[in-house]
Design brief:
The protein has helices spanning about 5-25, 35-40, 60-75, 90-100, 110-120, 155-165, 180-190, 205-210, 220-230, 275-290, 295-305, 310-320; strands at about 50, 80-85, 105-110, 130-140, 140-145, 170-175, 195-200, 215-220, 235-240, 265-270, 305-310. The chain is an alpha/beta fold and about 325 residues long.
């Protein structure tokens, strides 16, 4: 046999042996243990942490915990909600970004992810996150204690102006972006110097202070005060939506009353932008199924959570449209 034929024969044996080796390893050149593909397919295999940047018991916390319980069912693992508060949500956002981008840390993002960046108090942006989906959009409302005796926003406005004449102000409890809602409302109504905006760490604190009549009103969502509205302890003086709430048809919008104040709060689920796309797909599928779950829909209807589903692309577009207006 010539040297050239011997060389080709040797090369053929080597190639055949290498081919058999690959077949024994699954045909993809990787062992079955530790491959990226297998890690993704095994997700999730342990509990997930979900960060709520607002205090326990508030409207965002209530809505987020409920929605996470249905996502947990779809994913087949526990989702443990942690309240990491401060900085108008920025402390929680920062904690989510500091976690390993492995899909085991989720975070609820809302309007403050836009307003904090616009105010220049943080470099954290919604662009640092991969959106899963949006699940609620709630109009902001102005709520007061029934004992104050104000039946309309005009009653409240006149009381604020009367307090100003005495060198005093009415106190409005605010938290997060609801501060901006209250500020917009006060400016439009000509009472900016007749009210004091009192900040709180979450809507549960707002509600407690209003119940104790330590503040005169709060800007908040319906979910946070629903039991007190139903009992008559509190009343809504106006909604900042584009139209009246069908569940409270007697409450006028501020626009109806002649004040151009339209503002709503959204809640969306997100994770670090560097999370594997295959994991994101699993989370997004679970998010959609959780939203479509009839039990979640019933809960949201009963809680007046005003459920709205936007997928990850629609959520980003929604935020992009809002961001320049902050």
């Amino acid at each position: 046999m010539s040297k050239r034929k011997k060389l080709w024969s040797l090369m053929f044996v080597v190639l055949l042996a290498f081919s058999l080796m690959l077949t024994g390893c699954g045909g993809n050149g990787q062992s079955s243990s530790g491959s990226d593909s297998d890690e993704v397919l095994d997700y999730p295999n342990r509990p997930i942490t979900a960060i709520c940047p607002w205090s326990a018991g508030g409207s965002s916390d209530i809505a987020f915990r409920a929605y996470m319980s249905y996502m947990s069912q779809e994913l087949g693992v526990d989702i443990n909600v942690q309240n990491i508060t401060g900085g108008d949500g920025d402390v929680g956002y920062s904690a989510a970004l500091a976690a390993e981008p492995d899909g085991y840390t989720l975070v609820m993002v809302n309007y403050d992810i836009l307003s904090n960046e616009a105010k220049g108090i943080t470099d954290t942006s919604y662009k640092d996150f991969a959106m899963i989906n949006m699940f609620t959009i709630q109009d902001v409302t102005l709520v007061t204690h029934a004992d104050y005796g104000w039946k309309t926003f005009e009653d409240f406005r006149q009381a604020a102006l009367a307090a100003k004449e005495k060198g005093e102000t009415l106190k409005i409890g605010v938290t997060g972006f609801w501060l901006h809602a209250a500020g917009m409302m006060a400016k439009e109504a000509g009472i900016s110097d007749a009210v004091t905006l009192v900040p709180f760490s979450g809507s549960s604190d707002q509600v407690a202070e209003l119940l104790g009549k330590h503040v005169h009103a709060v800007t908040t969502s319906t979910t946070a005060v629903l039991p007190h509205l139903q009992s008559g302890t509190m009343i809504t003086l106006g909604t900042m939506g584009t139209e009246r709430d069908p569940d409270f048809p007697d409450v006028p919008t501020f626009r109806e009353m002649g004040y151009d104040v339209v503002i709503a709060g959204f809640r969306a689920v997100a994770t670090h932008k560097d999370v594997d796309p295959a994991i994101l797909e699993i989370l997004r599928e679970a998010g959609k199924k959780a939203y479509d779950n009839p039990e979640f829909q019933k809960w949201a209807d009963d809680a007046k959570a005003y459920q709205v589903y936007l997928d990850h692309e629609e959520t980003v577009k929604y935020m992009e449209n809002l961001a320049p207006k902050v």
